[in-house]
Hints:
- With about 375 residues, the protein is mainly beta.
- About 5% of the residues lie in helices and about 45% in strands.
- It has a single domain (about 25-380), classed as YVTN repeat-like/Quinoprotein amine dehydrogenase (Methylamine Dehydrogenase, Chain H).
- β11 and β12 form a beta hairpin.
- The N and C termini lie far apart (about 50 Å).
- Residues about 1-20 have low confidence and may be disordered.
Amino acid sequence: MGFLIKRTLTYLSIIIIITGCAKSLIKIISNTDEDSYPMFGKTTSKNFFVPVTVSDSLKLKWESDVYGSFTNSSVVIYDKYVFTSDLGGRIFVFNIEDGKRVGLLKIGETIPGTPLVFKSLIIYATAEDKNNISELVYYDYANGKQLYYEEIDSRILSEMIALDDGIIFLTESGRINRYDLIGNSIWQTETNNRTRSSPSLINNTVVFGNDAGEVITINAKNGKINNRFHIGGIFNGSPTIVNNSAIFSNNNGKVYSIDYGTGKINWEYDTRERVVMTPASDNENIYVGNLEGSLFSLSKESGKLNWMRNYNGLFNATPLITNYRIIIPDLDKAFYIIDKNNGIIKNKYSLDARAKLTPVFADSTLFIGYDRGILRAYEFIY
Length: 382
């Protein structure tokens, strides 16, 4: 027994030494990528739809370990590199083809959201619970050095937006900020209500909700508040923006389609259980799951229910939508490939721990992440 304990402790010590001594450096050269996946949801308007036809069968391409667990964010991709962060305060970079680690930054503080990736630049925010502050960091990964650092009053807990010439982010206190790509503040606007929703953007309009049940729109050029409408509930996730409508979900279990110009509620649907994910959409329908393990397909135009199925799990990560299939993580240690027309499970893949990351499809590869810090890349079998 003593020998077993001693050997276990020795093994754990080796792991600590290996992970602790890993060099904190990302220094890679990337080519211009016109079809990158630079932020959570890929685009500023968020829809999580990829117009591809996939099969129901997968083959594991590679698996890599990031040591810590994930938030309900996603990987980001630029050129041949996959970037991800973990709750232990690290950013990892893997080769998209074989999963070999090519870079690691050890930050130390939690990184709640998805890092933003540009050609040669990573922008990320940490959050400190004790001091209620965040650190905004710009890192030059082509040269392997930090370019800019700023301590931000109030924590940045939500997803940031990547622009061609800068970034937009919200703090927990409800302050929305726009910065350029060298760290200059373009504008800051106080909305004076706690906010855990993430912003989305379309046509130079930023849209988000807050804990007071408001939907707020901001002029992205000058930071002025266009409108604020009281809807009710507490908003989580990002709105998915389609045409002139923002699709929101809230803690009351309701899904809303809101005209973000006028504040008019186009329709609402009650899922009868708390919803924390960002709704996903394709050209015709909205797809949203709740914490009771039910998944709903709703008409984008009317909010009419197409179908609903319960999978006896827990959905809090946004699904990936393809032409005919939905790929959705279940916190109950699995992910599903589902028929988009009727909600029938076409295949189920069990995992060793809770599924966390929103699935991403890029370079003909599906990326899935789950607890214990496991990132997997799958190929579809046709």
